[in-house]
Design brief:
The protein is α+β, with helices and mostly antiparallel strands. The protein is built from 2 helices and 8 strands. The strands form 2 sheets. Strands 2, 3, 4, 5, 6 and 7 form a 6-stranded mixed β-sheet that branches. Strands 1-8 form a two-stranded antiparallel ribbon.
């Protein structure tokens, strides 16, 4: 995803491209979630007074593990990209604020790979549940309680009642 600044004409430059999950490199692979589809980019680059605005969307399917029952959950992910690139020789231009990201570029080429990779990695869910009412796994026997109850559950309840019985009122 390297763009020649000269390719960005007066009307801007539209990038529509796809990258496989391998493009992420896997160095920051999270154990909780990973990308499970091609990653689609629809990005508009516009040149404005020396700066380059990069706006668009990234879409992909992430697969994450339910934090309660450990089953796989598909998470449809759409990210909005709002980035403003300034030439690295522009002095002390550190205006910030709003919801834009600011980066610099050097020379005549912009390499968007690192920035886009970071955005994808940051957006991976770190905690998901397959459903709000997910019952999770039994801590005793590991049974997925969404599928069927296990016998420990009743025993646990029994012991809880036993504790209650011991309390003297
Ligand atoms: Zn679950
Ligand atoms: Zn159990």
């Amino acid at each position: 995803m390297i763009v020649n600044v000269s390719e960005i004409g007066d009307g801007g430059l539209r990038l529509d491209l796809k990258k496989g999950p391998g493009w992420l490199g896997g160095s920051e692979k999270s154990e909780v979630a990973s990308v499970d589809s091609d990653i689609e980019f629809h990005i508009d680059l516009l040149r404005t007074a020396g700066e380059i605005s990069v706006r668009g969307e990234i879409g992909f399917l992430a697969v994450a593990r339910c934090s309660r029952c450990l089953s796989d959950v598909n998470v449809d992910t759409n990210l909005e990209i709002k980035l403003l690139l300034s030439p690295s020789d522009a002095e002390g231009k550190t205006e910030s604020g709003g919801d834009m990201d600011y980066e610099t570029y050097r020379g005549r080429k912009i390499d968007l790979n690192d920035y886009m990779r970071e955005q994808v990695n940051l957006s991976l869910p770190y905690k998901v549940v397959c459903a709000e009412e997910c019952k999770g796994l039994c801590s005793e026997c590991g049974q997925n309680l969404n599928e069927q109850p296990c016998s420990c559950e009743t025993r646990q309840q029994d012991s809880r009642f036993a504790v209650l019985k011991d309390i003297k009122i």
